[in-house]
Amino acid sequence: MSAPSLTPSKAAGTRPPQPPADGPPRRGGSFGRSLKRNLTAHGFLIGAVLCFAFFSWYPMVREFFLAFQKTDRGEVSWVGLDNLSTVFNDPAFWQAWRNTALYTLLALVLGFAVPFVVAIVINELRHGKGYLRLLVYLPVMLPPVASVLLFKYLYDPGYGMLNEVFGFFGLPEQQWLQDPDLSLLSVVIASTWMNMGGAALIYLAALQGIPGELYEAAELDGAGLLRKIWHVTIPQTRLVLSLMLLMQIISTMQVFVEPFLLTGGAGPEGSTTTVVYLIYQYAFNFNDYGAAAALGLLLLVLLAGFSAAYVKLSRAEDE
């Protein structure tokens, strides 16, 4: 009878002991593979950052320096606060701010409320939501020049369709773009029609995310349509409404295209002169880039301060 073997049997399925590895495992290979795998993503990210820096950050930094400089026959000199003094002493300065503030107020009444109402109406319908979404968003897809030409035809005092409708109902015809009291309101109406499609779709997406059980509970409590909107719809979409309010104020404070194309920028008796149009005049009509940069810097500081205050108040309310 043979003695038992001290070596492990192959049938037992055991493996011979492996020699210890020399040092920790290398990570260079995995890092290289990860870098190669994400090289395309890093390339797109770097390109986006460079484009953003060149077209956004650099103009802002350049504007800051231009606000304190003067360019005369190619020679640049530092003038301190002279550009700000020039802007403040311009009679059109306060008129431009007054028109911009009034435009922002009217745009909030129409451009902020109308898309929300349109979104509620579309959300309540049972059929044809897709066609209505396309119809509402169609003005956004049109070029701004085409939309402005359409409204110029509607506002024309001679053969404009709007005055034709007024005449049909026995109402007096209006000088929509020639009357200083109506020109700014006419620009707001055109701007609301041109830009409300995107906001309406955002509101519609927020409305479709509200649980239906909340409306059912409100109906059991006897709430009507207006009470459901006030107690269910608005609280459930408060975050989206707050964000859109901030975006609306920032965009309307920078309005330029609509008054420039509809009324030539200034409008009758300067009634549609906005801050951005005044910046355009300083830069391209008066060749005073320092004053244009100073006014742009004032607008930037105002909007940045408003945004910071708004964010702080929103955080305090959430807490």
From TrEMBL:
PROSITE patterns, per database record: ABC_TM1
Keyword match Lipid metabolism: no
InterPro entries: ABC_transporter_permease (IPR051393), MetI-like (IPR000515), MetI-like_sf (IPR035906)
Region (Disordered): 1-29
Pfam assignment, any one: BPD_transp_1
Location in the cell: Cell membrane
Keywords for this protein: Cell membrane, Membrane, Transmembrane, Transmembrane helix, Transport
Main localization of the protein described in the UniProt heading: membrane
Transmembrane segments annotated in the record for this chain: 39-58, 101-122, 134-155, 182-206, 237-257, 289-311
Domain ABC transmembrane type-1: 97-310
CDD domains, sorted: TM_PBP2 (cd06261)
Membrane topology annotation: Multi-pass membrane protein
Keyword Amino-acid biosynthesis appears in the UniProt entry: no
Gene3D superfamilies, sorted: MetI-like
Family: Belongs to the binding-protein-dependent transport system permease family.
Name of this chain's protein: Sugar ABC transporter permease
